[in-house]
Amino acid sequence: MTVYLNGRFLPLEDAKISVLDRGFIYGDGVYELIPVYKREPFRMPHHLRRLQRSLDGIRLANPHTDAQWEAIIRKLVAAQPFDDQGVYFQVTRGVAKRDHAFPTGVAPTVFMMSNPLATPSREQVERGVAVVTAEDNRWRRCDLKTISLLGNVLMRQLAADAGAVETVMFRDGYLTEASAVRSPAASPAPCSVTSPIFSSSARPRCRTADPHSAAVRKRLRHREAAVMEHEPGARAPLAVLDLAEEQQVVARLELRVLLALEPRDAAFDQRRARRAETVRHAGEAVGVRP
């Protein structure tokens, strides 16, 4: 496999990074991942904007212009033997003596690799997958894509221990995200929650169902229309779940599934209003506007 490291394309086994790199010592860096379909990067400008936002969030200068990033990414994609890829790259604060304060005059470390793109199976798309739920106890700046992912690793292991595909996380009774993927299943398919370790009346009541059935489609349309009637601008602030545009779509699908599977009762409108208000406030906190 060919990878990119600090200006060079080289075999993976020849890529070496100092043990004093702050990414290794502190997890001091950010990352991005761009899906590639038929060797064409998907919405690259959106991902590069998100990378810039993460770099700004940790006060690290961007080592490349967008044009330079694109040239590197396309060259790496061309060097791989597979068409559909996931290009992962990260930028750390570089190599320096161990000290919590930012070093000065240190060049960042830039690493990039590309692997075959993992996609859900047809059965997963059609039937959904098993997940577990957990309280989201990670730090409060999960809007930044930092390489410090121990919290996500521990959450993902909860699912593995239970024989499930993913861990869906909640904070204060509201869905934040999954531990390792954008959503419990990469489709609007309902999920089957197993071994719940999070107790809250707001936890989604998920079950396995056919997402293509007329009943499910009707419920999805009804619940989405209800949200839009209550808060016409509710879609845009959902970007706080992930700022990439294609992941905003997934975030909306997640909300639609939760609404579709939530029983309609006397408290539904009140829960819907609380959810819309929380999402709006979260969006304002990170500068997202309808």
Q: What does this entry look like structurally?
A:
- With 290 residues, the chain is an alpha+beta fold.
- The chain folds into two domains: 2-116, Aminotransferase class 4, branched-chain amino acid transferase, N-terminal domain (D-amino Acid Aminotransferase, Chain A, domain 1), CATH 3.30.470.10; 123-285, no CATH class.
- It is 35% helix and 19% strand.
- It has helices spanning 22-25, 44-57, 66-78, 122-127, 150-161, 214-230, 245-261, 268-285; strands at residues 2-5, 8-11, 29-37, 40-41, 85-92, 109-116, 130-135, 166-171, 174-178, 192-193.
- The strands form two sheets. Strands 2-1-6-5-3-4 form a six-stranded antiparallel sheet. It has a four-stranded mixed sheet with strand order 9-8-7-10, with helices on one face.
- Helix 6 crosses helix 7 (245-261).
- The longest helix is centred in the last third of the chain and has 18 residues, at 268-285.
- It is globular, with a radius of gyration of 20 Å.
- 29% of the residues are buried.
Order of helices and strands: EEHEEHHEEHEHEEEHHH
Work out the strand percent: 15-25%
Q: What radius of gyration results from the CA coordinates?
A: 20 Å
Distance between the ends: 42 Å
β-strand number: 10
- Number of helical elements: 8
Structural class: alpha+beta
- How are the strands of the largest sheet arranged? 2-1-6-5-3-4
Q: What best-fitting shape do the alpha-carbon axes yield?
A: globular
Q: Any idea how many domains?
A: 2
Largest sheet: 6 strands, antiparallel
Low-pLDDT runs of 5+ residues are 183-213, 223-264, 286-290
Overall average residue pLDDT: 75
Q: What share of the residues lie within helices?
A: 25-40%
